[in-house]
Amino acid sequence: MVGPVAKRVAVGWLVDAQGTSLRRACRLVGLSTATWRYQRRGRVDNAHLLARLQAHAAVRARYGYRRLHTLIAREGLVANHKRVHRVYREAGLQVRRRRRKRVTRGERVPLPAPTRPGERWSMDFMADTLADGRGFRTLNIVDDFTRECVAIEVDRSLPGARVVRVLERLAETIGLPQVLVSDNGPEFAGRTLDAWAYRRGVALRFIRPGKPIENAYIESFNGKFRDECLNEHWFLSVAEAQTIIDAWRVDYNTVRPHRSLGQQTPAAYAAAACAGPKPGCGACSAAALTTTEQPMNADGLTLSV
What we know:
By secondary structure, this protein is an alpha/beta fold. The protein has helices at 4-17, 22-29, 33-37, 47-59, 65-74, 81-90, 160-173, 186-189, 191-200, 216-228, 238-254, 266-274; strands at residues 120-129, 135-143, 149-155, 179-182, 203-206. The protein contains 12 helices and 5 strands.
């Protein structure tokens, strides 16, 4: 007899069948009387916690338990991460990991970190297809300091003139950065953007060809955008893609916890760092959210744009 369960059975037999006193039976078996009298407490009711996890996971299917735990904590539901992880696993809500293509390990060049909002933006293009097989592109622009996605332009074609038009729209709403970082694509390296940047006093910085790690902030965002939005939706038209993608962008800025920001949202981090638009502080999209840009409702978990 090694375990306390077997010892409790032996003590019970001595007391009931042999008439031995409880104290003597425990001493003979080597079991504490406190252990004998211990009554196992019932399990904590996890029904409400499970319901909230399932509700959030239904809307944000690519969130792991850590981000779901942050969303649960915002609602005032007290549960540590270990309990959330246990319920999360028992409910089978684990995110299926997609295998990444193996690439050769080249030289890693660290990108200098910006020091304030609006100091540097990163831009890049992505491509996807509609339900009928036609392709479309997205122009993603991210603030490297706050990790905010200041714009995602969606259309079948996005030439250099369209890039300038998007930047002009941002200049009217939240201002422009000091530096724009991009790859050497024709839309970014062409004369249209170069002439606009010269007029606006914005410096263009191009990464070396074949070195996407030098534009790590936008590459990291692209991975999240692909995993949590593009791979999770089936777009029937460009208009539908624009609506869904912009709603995801607002949710990314105002709801999604960001690990590198201490589980804060990019908008909250920008508000704390900038405390509203200031001279020299740079662009801050959190201060420019319009009434039509509403994040996911924490109770109804619905998107409205």
